[in-house]
Design goal:
By secondary structure, the protein is an alpha+beta fold. It has one domain: Muramoyl-pentapeptide Carboxypeptidase, domain 2 (2-Layer Sandwich), CATH 3.30.1380. 23% of the residues lie in helices and 15% in strands. It is built from 5 helices and 7 strands, in the order H-E-H-E-E-H-E-H-E-H-E-E. The strands form 2 sheets. A 5-stranded mixed sheet has the order 2-4-5-7-6, covered by helices on one side. A two-stranded antiparallel sheet has the order 1-3. The radius of gyration is 17 Å and the shape is globular. It starts with 5 loop residues before the first helix and ends in a 23-residue tail after the last strand.
């Protein structure tokens, strides 16, 4: 059995949970093939906020600071990173694949008036399928995170893709990121400038595999 398909077996465990205590049951999906982003392109930088207490919830949710996407999405993201080099930028990833149980925690911890910023665990999320990524730009010359006119996971109107009241330079960087991502099949989530969905995210099942159970590989090209 291809070790990249380990999630098929692991997926069966959480599906035995009753009701909304477990992820939705699904059939007819593509076999998962989660790829660790830095094994495709080590120039992609990581700042996995949910592996630390530096996030809007003030607590860590992951035991390891790693980022994954389904293989076609991961390969497309590596191409995005390569394309940005000419503009002086690289990609800084905050989050990729997210186990379902973490989405459930987010939902339970988020006030009713702010739930537009989190996914309903009843249906599972794009992140749970390995088909979404949260990211920004960093400057290649300084290594510093770029000013995008709003913070990651900020629950305000500044996070909306349609927000127009920020500094011109920051809004221009949002456009640079959006255009580069769209060329490779990623599309922005309207309420979060940093969140992009892979065009085929619907093809994959909701997963609940913790990072520490995903085998580490040196290179997955």
């Amino acid at each position: 059995m291809n070790t990249n398909l380990f999630a098929l077996a692991a997926l069966l465990l959480p599906l035995s949970l009753a009701g909304q205590d477990g992820p939705p049951k699904e059939a007819g999906r593509r076999a998962p093939d989660l790829v660790e982003l830095v094994t495709l392109d080590p120039r992609i930088r990581l700042e996995i906020r949910y592996a630390t207490a530096t996030n809007e919830f003030g607590k860590p949710f992951y035991k390891e600071a790693r980022a994954f996407l389904q293989r076609p999405a991961a390969e497309a993201l590596a191409r995005v990173n390569a394309s940005l080099k000419a503009k002086g930028y690289g990609l800084l990833v905050y989050d990729g694949y997210r186990p379902w149980r973490v989405t459930k925690e987010f939902w339970d911890l988020t006030p009713e008036g702010k739930k537009i910023f989190v996914a309903n665990p009843k249906n599972g999320s794009r992140h749970n399928r390995g088909g979404a990524v949260d990211l920004t730009l960093y400057a290649l010359d300084t290594g510093k995170e770029a000013d995008m006119g709003g913070a990651y996971d900020e629950m305000s109107k500044r996070s909306y893709v349609t927000f127009e009241n920020g500094p011109d330079e920051a809004l221009e960087r949002r456009e640079v990121l959006r255009k580069a991502m769209e060329v490779e099949g990623f599309f922005p989530y309207p309420w979060e400038w940093w969140h992009f969905d892979w065009k085929d995210w619907r093809d994959y099942p909701v997963l609940d595999v913790p990072f520490e159970e995903i085998p580490k590989k040196e290179n997955q090209r």
